[in-house]
Design brief:
Ferritin, mainly alpha, 167 residues
Length: 167
């Protein structure tokens, strides 16, 4: 059950729980997404982000250690939907190059959701003068933005072009 949101700190805690759940779900999904990738650089990008995602969840746990709350007890419905959509792409009958392009799209939807979430969390932490949390969230935000940029680079430099050539 969620708490009554009558103060920014409680919203911060609820959104941290949401981010914790999102990262946990992504940790489960990324190996399947990686295995569905055809292009080795794309699979490597998913592998690298899996390691980062574990670090993101660890940072959230570190923030929770400074609060009077625990990270569990919440399921991020948005991430569940994004992961479900990605799993449908994994199962779809597609050529390898088109599947890679679709996986990048699904992964970028996930990244954009995470960037939005961490951006809000950072703002809340700053207002709450939770400087340690701000620093940890900044690290995660930087990694999420880098992952998104790397996926864009992979898509624009060659994955999407190969997807056009297959038929």
């Amino acid at each position: 059950m969620t708490m009554r949101l009558d103060h920014l700190e409680k919203l911060f805690v609820e959104q941290l729980k949401d981010a914790y759940s999102a990262e946990s779900q992504l940790i489960e999904a990324l190996p399947k997404i990686r295995d569905a990738a055809n292009a080795k650089p794309l699979a490597e990008a998913f592998d690298a982000h899996l390691a980062e995602t574990k670090g993101h969840r660890d940072r959230i746990e570190r923030i929770f250690k400074t609060l009077d709350y625990k990270p569990g007890g919440h399921r991020c419905k948005a991430m569940a939907g994004l992961v479900e959509e990605a799993m449908e792409l994994v199962a779809d009958d597609a050529t390898p190059a088109v599947r890679d392009a679709a996986l990048i799209c699904a992964a970028q939807k996930i990244e954009h959701y995470e960037i939005a979430t961490y951006g809000c969390l950072r703002s809340y932490a700053a207002l709450l003068h939770a400087d340690d949390a701000v620093a940890l969230i900044d690290e995660t935000l930087d990694e999420e933005r880098h992952a998104d940029a790397h996926l864009t680079e992979l898509a624009e430099q060659w994955v999407n072009v190969f997807a056009m050539k297959t038929a």
